Amino acid sequence: MTALYIDADACPVKGECLRVAERHGATVYVVSNGGIRPSPHPLVHTVVVPDGPDAADMWIAERIGRGDVCVTGDIPLAAKCLEAGARVLRHDGEAFTQANIGNQLATRDLMADLRAANPLSQGGGGGKPFGKAERSRFLDRLETTMRAAGREG
Predict the structure, then answer these.
(1) Main-chain phi, psi angles of 33, to 5 degrees
(2) Residue 117 has what DSSP assignment?
(3) What are 81-103's pLDDT values in tens digits?
(4) What angle do CA 11, 153, 90 make, to 5 degrees?
(5) What is the Cα 21 distance to its own chain's centre?
(6) Residue 43 pLDDT
(7) Among candidates 54, 10, 50, 13, which has minimal Cα distance to 33?
(8) What are phi and psi of 89, to 5 degrees?
(9) Does 57 fall in a domain?
(10) Does residue 119 lie in a domain region?
(11) I need a surface site. Which of 54, 71, 79, 125 has the fewest CB within 10 A?
(12) For residue 47, what is the domain's CATH number?
């Protein structure tokens, strides 16, 4: 049975994840280090991990496997999930795959080095606005991913 793992800290599509998971009868793990209101839905398990670097990521990586799906924006977590045989989507519906994860990790590391090398940098300006079109695209891609994962699991 497919399980859906949500790296819930700063996840803008938790509601959409629950809608799709309910259609598939999938167990949902909403994992964060706090600040998330528990869902009363019987398929949803709210997991609060201790504060600490990457505690939620480690919890997910230790449990996810083939036939499961993870929704995250965290590239190192995505790599661990792919290694375990799971499918992984970003919040915008873009899939992390074996074919693109190496480039994504390298780009992430390069950008971290560039930010560290520029002491005058004020940081980023945030992401693009997240509206109806982005939510719709995410829903469509999660539905397709859940179907494919269900065939594997």
Answers:
(1) -100, 25
(2) H
(3) 999 999 999 999 999 999 987 77
(4) 20
(5) 14
(6) 95
(7) 50
(8) -125, 145
(9) yes
(10) no
(11) 125
(12) 3.40.50
Q: Which of 4, 39, 46 is nearest to 25 (CA)?
A: 4
Give dist(CA 60, CA 30) in Å, integer. Answer: 10
Domain extent, residue 24, equals 3-97+140-152
The tokens describing 147, both together, are 């179907």
Q: Which helix (H) or strand (E) element contains residue 148?
A: helix 132-152
Instruction: Please name the helix (run of DSSP H) or strand (run of DSSP E) that holds residue 23, with its range, or none.
Output: helix 14-24
**Partners of 4 in the β-ladder:** 28, 69
pTM listed for this prediction = 0.86
Q: Minimum mean pLDDT among 24-33, 35-44, 110-119: which range?
A: 110-119
**Domains contained in the chain, number:** 1
In a domain, 83, yes or no: yes
Closest CA to 61 of 70, 51, 52: 70
Q: Is the torsion defined by CA of 3, 54, 89, 91 positive or negative?
A: positive
